[in-house]
Amino acid sequence: MSKTVTKADLIEAVYEATGKGRSEVKDLVEELIELIKNGMATKDGVLISGFGKFEVHSKRSRIGRNPHTGQPMTLPARRVATFRLSNKFRAELNASNPLRPQQDENKS
After folding, report:
1. Taking the CB of residue 25, how many other CB atoms lie within 10 A of it?
2. Which residues contact 58 (CB under 8 A, 6 or more apart)?
3. How many CB atoms lie within 10 A of CB 46?
4. CA-CA distance, 56 to 50, in Å (whole number)?
5. Residue 86: which of 55, 43, 42, 57 has the closest Cα?
6. Per-residue pLDDT of the chain (108 residues; tens, 9 = 90+)
7. Structural domains of the chain sorted by starting position, each given as residue range(s) with its CATH number in brackets
8. What is the per-residue pLDDT for 98?
9. How many CB atoms are closer than 10 A to CB 105?
10. CA 76 – CA 63 distance, rounded (Å)
């Protein structure tokens, strides 16, 4: 089972890796998150080379159904956040994925 990485986990990991003060690391992590949020608000998004790209896409309004009543309803236009892995990171994940069935080299 996987564990969600929280902001506190990020702060702790950077603190242990760098030896900088916790308050300084907290400020750096907060600034990084703000940079990503502000970058996503722009049209271009945020590209982190070797990791992926955070983007925001606009969705048009559409007709949906109320799941309780089944009645049609209009879903308003909205903006959604997306993340796309870089090809390099995707290849790394797939190369070391323990959930992917391994092919038996002895089979012909």
Report:
1. 20
2. 77, 78, 79
3. 19
4. 19
5. 55
6. 578 999 999 999 999 999 899 999 999 999 999 999 999 988 789 999 999 999 999 999 999 999 999 999 999 999 999 999 999 999 998 887 666 555 544 544
7. 1-41 (no CATH), 44-98 (4.10.520.10)
8. 61
9. 5
10. 9
Three-state SS across the chain? CCCCCCHHHHHHHHHHHHCCCHHHHHHHHHHHHHHHHHHHHCCCCEEECCCEEEEEEEECCEEEECCCCCCEEEECCEEEEEEEECHHHHHHHHHCCCCCCCCCCCCC
Q: Per the structure block, which two tokens stand in for 24?
A: 């300084």
Q: Encoding tokens for residue 92?
A: 């790394």
